Amino acid sequence: MKAMKKTVALLLICSLMVCALAAMTPATAADDRVRTVVGADLTNEQTETVYAAFGVARGSVTELTMTNEEERAYLEGLVEESVIGTNSISCVYLELLEEGAGSSVSVNNVTWCTQEMYQGALATAGVTDVRVIVAAPFPVSGTAALAGIYKAYESLTGEELDETAKQVGTQELVTTAELADELGGYDAAQLVEELKYILDDTRNMTDEELHARIGEIAAQYDIQLNDSQIRQLAGLCRQLEKLSDSELVQRVEDIQNTVEKLGQVKETASGVAASVQNFFQKVGNFFSRIFG
Question: How many CB atoms lie within 10 A of CB 31?
C-alpha cells in the first residue's frame, strides 16, 4: 500500500512539473513567420554554432543565403573595404510579429553595432514589428547583417522595401556606429533619433543653420561634438530628408514603446519565476506531509 502511494505521488509530481514547465516554455514560432539568413561563406560547423545562438534547430525554419556581393550593394562607399571584407559571415534570425507589436533586436558576437543602432536603422528602412537576432560564429562588426535583415523581411512579407529607405537605413547604421566609437553607443543613437523629429524643419535650413541646430541638440544631452561629427550628422540628416518624416517619427515612437514593453515583460517574467519557485516549494511541503 505504501509503495502504491509513492507511485501515485511520483506520477502526480511528474504531471505537475510538465504542466508548470509547459506554462513557462514559449511557443515556437511557425515557419511561415520566421526566416534565417546565413552567410554564404560559413562552414557547416559555424552555421550550427549560429543556429545555437538563434535557439532553433537548423531545418526547422526556412533558410536563405547572403553573399558578399549582396552585402556590397549596400555597404560600398559607406565603410572601408577592410570592414566589408570578401566573405559573408553575419547571420540573421527574423520573426515577423503581429502588427503593432514593435521591434526588438539582440546581438551575439557583434562588436561594432548595438541593438539600439539596428533598431534605428530598421525603423528608417521600414522594417517593423519583428524580432531580430544578429549572430556570427566569431566576432564581427555587424554592418553587413542589415542586408540579411532586409532580405529576410522581404521574403516574409512578399513586398520589397523602398530602395532609398534601405540605403539610408544602412548609412544611418554605419554613421551611428562610427560616431559611437567616440561618443558612446547610446549617445550616438540618441542624436540620430532626435534628428528624425526635426526633418520637417531641416529641409528649409541652410547647411550652416543645420550645423547649428545639431550643436544645440547635442548640448541638450551634454554631448560635445567636433566639426567633423557635426558634418557627419548633417550628411545623414540630408539623406533622411528624402523619406517621409511623419512615418519616421511614428517608428521612433514605436521603438520607445517597445522598450517600455520589454521592461514590463522582464518584470512579469521575474514574477512568474518567483511564482513557479513558490509552487514547487508548496508541492514539496505537501508530499513531505504525506510521507512524514
Answer: 11
